[in-house]
Amino acid sequence: MSSVRAIAILILLTTIATVAFGQDDDPIRVDSSIVRLNVGVVDGRGRPMVNLDRSNFTIYEDGVKQQITRFEPSSAPFSVVMILDMSGSTLGFRQVMKQSAFRFVDALTPQDRVAVIEFYDKVNVRNDFTTDRRTIGTSIELSNGRGKTQLFKAIDLALEKLSGEKSRRKAIIVLSDGIDTAVRDIDREQMANLPDDQIPSAIKPETSDILQRVLNKADRQGVTIYPLALPTGDPAKLADPTLRQVAMYKAARARLQIIADRTGGVVNTINRLEEMGTLYAKVAADLRTLYTIEYQPINEKRDGKWRTITLETSDTALISRTKTGYFAK
After folding, report:
1. What's the whole-number mean pLDDT along residues 281-304?
2. Hey, where are the domains in the chain?
3. Which of 1, 106, 235, 284 has the fewest CB atoms below 10 angstroms from its CB?
């Protein structure tokens, strides 16, 4: 091989390596200049208002009025990822979980596209997006596993799958106790050398890099996430817990609340397993009451700063719910 050819190959390999290692590890490619909101509206008695139109809404970002560029009525179909916790902590009530998941699918509209993801030691896509209820039902029935809780990896994969659904309305329903193994290990390490009196305030749930990564991805796509919190993650239900166990479980439950608040969803706490089916159906009903609104921010700076979103309706007696803001990245 000539020295010229060898040098050329070396340059090519160096270029490939530089590109590969320099790539953003975030596979999602969406138009980050568009902000998408899924919005729920109820009257003073909590009854959903499903007959509103674009003219009924006004959006402010950091106090500045924004122009609505796209509006989807509450009847528009969703692409939904159902995430099922198949880690070891759910072994004792799998059949209840699956029956409840079937109930959720039955409550969706025929046009809603559903993908099913299971997680344990692994994170698996049981089926890609489809309206075929038989395929979805088979995926739920065959979901199985045991071992670690890869919660945030599962949400990350769900967001990656949703990125292929383009302009469709998007939601994630995640059934879990919230005790992500990797995040729990970080929390435990953080408390390792602390005295007992510092343990209750040692963990700052919102500072988790793993959590913030999935929240930023959800922001860019306008995905609403509904956590269904299993009783196995309730710190009040721990048997003879240590201070550190209580702190970790409280942080995990707080992160589920942060996910819901940041994305405009709702945490549904399952206190008794027999409630699971009812709460799944409640989430499905809530999806059918959401509007989707998009706007292009007047402030085009991508400076990483927090932007506060305020939404008003033409009838001040109505109560609206959506995400509270986003980081402009």
Report:
1. 93
2. 41-73+289-327, 78-287
3. 1
